[in-house]
Amino acid sequence: MRDFRRRLLARPDALMLELGAGGELLVARLRTLLSMAMLSMPLVNLLAGGKASETMVGLFGVVLAIVLSQAWLALARQRQRHRWLPWATAAYDVSLTTLVLAILAVDSPVTGLNSMVVWAFYLVSIAMTALRNDGRLTLFSGALAIAQYGVLAAAIFALVPNPDQLASIDYGTVTASNQIQRLVLLALMTAITATIVYRMQKLVDMSGTDGLTGLPNRTWLVHRFPVMLDAIRGQGGSLAVCLIDLDYFKRINDEVGHLAGDRALRHVVGVLRQQMQEGDWLARLGGEEFALLLPLPLGRAWERLEAMRRTVATQPFAPEHGAELMRLTFSAGIASWPQDGADLSQLLRRADLRLRHAKLEGRNRVLARDP
């Protein structure tokens, strides 16, 4: 439960936010489709013998929803990610439902509180927050729905002078008991959706993190890199992609075992982390291969990585307690944006080419230029 609360209340990490941005676009498209589909509801109500006033209110709500859904969709499609947008649209989804119920209640209080078709859109609004991978949004949407509907119900009970106005043939009788039950249902829906978000966050976290070293993995890097590149481009900075591969790592596994090989990987990661600075990112791509992203021009990136190489080489590794120390080294290739490539695949390809040349030239070296 401690982890459940921590994840729901914490701001999502870079990967989760990137997936959430895609989720916001999905929600915007879904909202547009739902708004279009809702056009049939006022017509069905009219054909089924419903009141003309209810049909007009429903039609007003649907037209408003269609117009605003197009505005939200246009914002969600923008390349720029607006941090306030998910919060604004979550509040809009809930508040539009409350607005339609309030307008219905002006003509008929019992309709405003017992129109289950409209009320169900509270549940839809809460459920859609799961697509954004942010537990805070789910809790916000659920709390807002409970607060708004609770205030609406309390206001109608306080303002209606005659209890007979809270009963009708079509919508039944409004009682304090059934209104409290609906608030409980909103709370349950919020809890269920929050649990789904928590589970999704755990799965994304597992898919984006290397279990052995705790570093981000290739999946994380692929999703994170475009965001990082946009930030670097906006600041007019530089970015170096360094590909690191441990030398003769297979020999460690063969001579002292795979458990010792795992400890060797964690040892190297620990040494590299001690020398990293703010803005640096280290990811494990697989096996003994790592990617280090440095917000530096090529020359300075080479100096930093060369210093890391020397430090790793001077800090031997103990395969197990009391065992003879083993010296670890790595080879690396560096590619620079935008000179060596415009995207991650091009930069990794150029860095890998230089890494191979470093291996051919005797290992334990860093190359930033083509031979």
How would you characterize the overall build of this protein?
The chain has 14 helices and seven strands. It has helices at residues 2-9, 14-37, 40-47, 52-77, 85-107, 109-114, 116-128, 135-159, 176-208, 218-235, 249-256, 258-275, 298-314, 344-360; strands at 167-168, 172-173, 239-246, 281-286, 289-294, 330-337, 366-367. A hairpin with a 3-residue loop joins β1 (167-168) and β2 (172-173). The longest helix has 33 residues, at 176-208. The chain is elongated. 66% of the residues lie in helices and 9% in strands. The chain folds into two domains: 2-208, no CATH class; 218-367, 2-Layer Sandwich (Alpha-Beta Plaits), CATH 3.30.70. It is an alpha+beta fold and 371 residues long. The strands form two sheets. The chain has a five-stranded mixed sheet with strand order 4-5-3-6-7. A two-stranded antiparallel sheet has the order 1-2.
Major sheet details: 5 strands, mixed
Number of strands: 7
Q: Taking Cα atoms only, what radius of gyration do you get, to the nearest Å?
A: 29 Å
Note the quaternary state here. single chain
List low-pLDDT spans. none
Tertiary shape: elongated
Beta percentage is: 5-15%
Order of helices and strands: HHHHHHHHEEHHEHHEEHEHE
Average per-residue pLDDT, rounded, comes to: 86
Q: What gap, in angstroms, lies between the N and C termini?
A: 56 Å
Class of secondary structure makeup: alpha+beta
Helix content bin: 55-70%
Count of helices? 14
Order of strands in the sheet with most strands: 4-5-3-6-7
How many distinct domains?
Answer: 2
